[in-house]
């Protein structure tokens, strides 16, 4: 498919465990965003990549959260020592470049449940 | 601190009539506004946008209005169709960051 894909679609883990969430952006898109959407809320910005570098990581809630994009394509969001409050849908979006305003393409999200 | 608010969690409209979804914001630094549509188990899909230097943008059945003095924007859908039933999010942009509202669930009744 040509769209943004995210794996896994669902992840259930226990409190204190480590998880990795993967995002495959649309080929050629240089900008990549991670969001977190809690129940009844809108997407909340976490981090923005332009190419390989994190251009803005001010939305990451604490140092348990980290994201990488080593080759400027696939990105992985990593959460250490998960807590029940981390349970949410994690959305990834990509855009062709620049600020990507109006041209973000979202993936279906990964639903993370921390027991 | 919610910088973008959608105060109506749900809206029901008869097919063929106009749907009006509202959004308020607090940050005067926002320079771009967008509306997204979301179906269950899918990511949001971009619908329409407007720059802060404009007050109206139209695309087919969808029109977005921006009132900067009131810090308010709205999405008009006319005529509404059953396939428009979804959750609609407004978003505002400053710098590289997108701020989303909490969404309004629109139901178009056939």
Structure, explained:
The complex is a heterodimer of chains A (115) and B (110). Chain A has strands spanning 5-7, 10-13, 19-24, 31-37, 44-50, 53-56, 65-68, 75-79, 88-95, 105-106, 110-114. Chain A is globular and about 35 Å long. Chain A has 115 residues and is mainly beta. Helix content of chain A is 0%, strand content 48%. In chain A, the strands form 2 sheets. In chain A, strands 2, 4, 5, 6, 9, 10 and 11 form a 7-stranded mixed sheet that branches. Chain A has a 4-stranded antiparallel sheet with strand order 1-3-8-7, with no helix packed on it. Chain B has 110 residues and is mainly beta. In chain B, 0% of the residues lie in helices and 57% in strands. Chain B has no helices and 11 strands. Chain B has strands at residues 4-5, 10-14, 19-25, 32-38, 45-51, 56-59, 62-67, 72-77, 86-94, 97-100, 104-109. Chain B is globular and about 40 Å long. Chain B starts with a strand and ends with a strand. The mean pLDDT of chain B is 94. Chain A binds chain B through residues 4, 33, 35, 40-45, 48, 55-56, 58-59, 91, 93, 99, 101-109, and chain B through 4, 6, 32, 34, 36, 41-46, 49, 89, 91, 93, 95-103.
